[in-house]
Design a protein that fits this description.
Elements lengths: L15 H31 L3 H5 L6 H10 L7 E9 L6 E10 L4 E7 L4 E2 L2 E2 H21 L5 E6 H11 L2 E5 L3 E4 L8 E4 L2 E5 L1 H15 L2 H15 L2 H4 L2 H11 E3 L3 H6 L1 H10 L4 E4 L12 H11 L2
Parallel strand pairs: 1-6, 3-12
Antiparallel strand pairs: 1-2, 2-3, 4-5, 6-11, 7-10, 8-9
Helix pairs in contact: 5-6, 5-9, 6-7
Length: 307
């Protein structure tokens, strides 16, 4: 059945039955036209576009994320940290690394160093033995020529406790690792399977120690740090930022004060909310036969950490 026989002509049926059918179709056409006019008027009044109408009630994760980002405080600047872990007797450094929180570019940057690294014929380990974390910070600041703002000096047990409080994260290992060291009063065992697995504080500590002491793979050490930070510094943990900072203060020797934490809280919020959207940079470090940084490594580290 058709209303229009040819374009522009109205088809007039000859039979009574056909006439009734035509009336029905005319009625339907009027209803469709009226509905269309009403709908278009409603759409124009309440929605700027048709896509906005059809998307109503469907708030996507991306939209929620954009709303959250737009509400974040504006932060800027760069802060450099020196982080190290020792044995529980505070004698031997297990691993040591530089970390930058770059608020300008919303990025983490890290450079793992060797405890055996030599500065002017003196090892970092010996500098630490003589003066602790503060002495290390001062000497490395002088050596690199950029400010290291703060240091945090953990013993192994306290580091594990603190990371466990932050939570776990997913780490992807390129190999099976089955290792136990032979140091009687400072033993550790590392059992890691190749592939993806959930990592806690003890595995994090042992992985960093293994790559620093045994393998001397500082790029692999960087990878562990850069994998852990975005997952552990997250929005959920920001809700407990004050209590976590109190635990941090108890867990390590540091020159970070409560006032500096409060002043930097907006930056902490931004990094926690952005979390896995933070950009990650790994500064490669290489040492010569005398355990001194190569000139290219020094240049590389300065390029990342200079403010």
């Amino acid at each position: 059945m058709k209303i229009f026989k040819n374009r522009g002509d109205i088809y007039i049926p000859k039979s009574k039955r056909a006439s009734n059918q035509a009336k029905i179709l005319y009625s339907l056409l009027v209803i469709i036209v009226v509905f269309t006019v009403v709908f278009v008027g409603y759409l124009h009044k309440n929605y700027s576009t048709a896509s906005e109408f059809f998307a109503r009630g469907e708030v996507t994760v991306t939209e929620e994320y954009k709303d959250t980002i737009s509400e974040l405080p504006s932060v800027s600047g760069k802060t450099n940290f020196l982080i190290l872990e020792t044995d529980d007797d505070k004698k031997d450094i297990h691993y040591i690394y530089l970390l930058q929180a770059d608020r300008d570019n919303k990025a983490y940057k890290t450079a793992s160093l060797s405890p055996e690294m030599v500065i002017n014929n003196e090892k970092l380990q010996d500098i630490y033995t003589a003066g602790g974390g503060m002495a290390l910070k001062s000497r490395l600041t002088e050596y690199f020529g950029f400010d290291i703002d703060f240091y945090a000096d953990f013993d192994a047990s306290s580091f594990v406790e603190f990371v466990n409080k932050l939570g776990t994260y997913v780490y992807i290992s390129n190999e099976d690792i089955n290792f136990t060291n032979n140091i009687e009063d400072d033993k550790y065992t590392l059992r890691i399977n190749e592939g993806e697995q959930t990592i806690s504080g003890s595995e994090t500590s042992n992985l960093l120690r293994y790559f620093s002491e045994e393998e001397k793979k500082y790029s692999a050490e960087n990878e562990v740090i850069l994998k852990a930070l975005p997952e552990l510094i997250n929005e959920k943990n920001f809700e407990s930022a004050d209590s976590l900072f109190k635990l941090f203060m108890k867990s390590c020797k540091t020159d970070i004060t409560v006032r500096e934490f409060e002043n930097g809280k907006d930056g902490v919020m931004v990094f926690c909310v952005l979390s896995n959207d933070i950009t990650l940079y790994s500064a490669q470090t290489e040492f010569d036969e005398a355990n001194a940084l190569t000139s290219s490594s020094i240049k590389n580290i300065k390029g990342y950490f200079s403010k």
